[in-house]
């Protein structure tokens, strides 16, 4: 009877169960771990999955004077020792046999068919492929000893933000993402909102996409703790166990006063009708981190829009797309050569007020005669509110000089 050595599909991450401090960004995180170092050197074995998600150039070992680092990648794939041989795999309640065709391509021959990967744990006939198998490791050499801190950027952990705007209330949920196959314990955690670029490193995989369904947690809201270099910082309460997948935490709940909006911003049009995009506008009740906003009118979902990072008191505009009723009638009256009198009428057919934003840009050069609107180098812009059933007419004269 053959003896089979079972190899689990997951890889244990050495020393990565806890980060004393963590700062999460969009697409990556900075993690910090306290260490107590002996003199001379220290070997860090992060595990293959964690190592693959490190952002190059971001490792820091503070508290000692670093002299060098020796980086060693993981040992070869254990399947290499079994190319052309049979291995077993467990699937649908029983063990089955497949032949290893290529270790590099993870290719197997099973019942006359070639498979990329196997659907279950693999059983090997002997341990020969595991001799000397180690994960990646980094050897730090330094002067000094004692308390130190290891910090680094990783794409294995990140966050994003989603809002819902309904009945005058803006509710935000922060989604903390873990793309690994094991839990990560986060200590004091901050979320950073803003544009924080990192340079991609060659040959550094970005990890797997989280597969677990989001979980909802009943925790206190995130606390705004300040601005740093053009970013917003928020603190989460307590320690967090971040399981594989995504963990959703309450981020913000604040009343706002949304205004329904019609908007036309475009070039000069000689058409008989202008069409407006619909959306909502409101003032930021506090410093708001960027995110996707799902909008509801009553119980009806009316669309999603992206909200940029917005300072407290700043104006948020969420444009959703065309409104079938969002039309303005237009009439052009020629006055002289290349001169037109333009008459535009907007009417509100709805049972609630509408704020209208109207702006046009003209081909250069041009001459514009207009009243009741703001002149711009490109043309004009105008903002006004229409009560239900109310209409407003805008008239102007524009001249385009004769061109040869």
TrEMBL record:
PANTHER family: DUF4139 DOMAIN-CONTAINING PROTEIN. This is DUF4139 domain-containing protein. It comes from Meiothermus granaticius NBRC 107808.
